[in-house]
Amino acid sequence: MTLALEGVRVLDMTHVQSGPSATQLLAWLGADVVKVEAPGGDVTRRQLRDVPDADSLYFTMLNCNKRSITLNTKTERGQEILTALIRGADVMVENFAPGAVERMGFSWERIREINPRIVYASIKGFGDGPYTAFKAYEVVAQAMGGSMATTGFQDGPPLATGAQIGDSGTGIHAVAGILAALLQRERTGRGQRVNVAMQHAVLNLCRVKLRDQQRLAHGPLAEYPNDDFTDEVPRSGNASGGGQPGWAVKCAPGGPNDYVYVIVQPQGWTPLAALIGRPELAADPEWATPEARLPKLAKMFQLIEEWTSTLPKWQVLQQLNRHNIPCGPILSPKEIIEDESLAANDMIVEVEHPERGTFTTVGNPLKLSDSPTTITTPPLLGQHNEDIYIGELGLSRDELAQLKEQGVI
Fold this sequence. Notes:
The chain is an alpha/beta fold.
């Protein structure tokens, strides 16, 4: 079966997470992704190692389904080889520091001159302006994109989210831009540059907080559990952030992840009141309507928690779902890895690796009926040098040996 991006060659000059997460998605969709690494390799091959002298999970979980070559682009011969690689690519992705590729001699103008059809995607921390030269990391992007200021409880400090919205979130945005540019190329015959900034991607994911910032001009936000409001959107704990109130309530036996998140819709109040042993609240004017409950959200979820805290979260989940009340258990990483349904949906996948044995990784969340994904092992450093340099670029075996001796590969 032909995969969605079969025949698309991606030159992957990315490292760490934001870029590799994007190119891995492209590989899962069928693109031939060639990871171009310095002779020392992507730094994450060695970071957070759990198995001595083997590529770390940090690397393996972001670089499946790719091929790897090594290339020192600071050498003259290395730049000649990179030029040949660009000439044969459909897409080039990089996430170097601002100006690094230009200093290498490969400005967008030069890349477009080499290959007018190429889609050149750059992932940076920030757009043009006062932040351009700032170093960007996952949590820096969360801090400057609006996430941290609105995450946590009102009386606590700003908090980072465990979701990698700065790195992998930006990678997904980059994939959208790359696919759009490839589609447009079908009509125009021309490639184009795709620019994605981590701050911008986080901001896009925080749009509801900008919505609420504007709503504040008309008074307090009734669906927030906060007592006091200033002229800035407050941190609101586990409030749902939507039109229906929600909260994480404790369950038995009271462990760190023994919680269920419950959303109280208007139609769910009557069955919920019965479940918690307070059926009279369904008809009580002080509780019967959403408008009556809004000023008492803390008390409402306290009443719900008095019931949930007596039961394990899976029993709470079962009873709530029986009455079609939106809810979900808080699942720890351990529970997710052991979740049979996620494995059945190919979202938790076992992959064989030649150095570290089997490891568990996340599968492709993009399910295409005519383009099924098979997760394959990430490449060892320079594993495909011969295949690409000899088999595709036409270098001789002797020249390949010389390039290695000279530190070009």
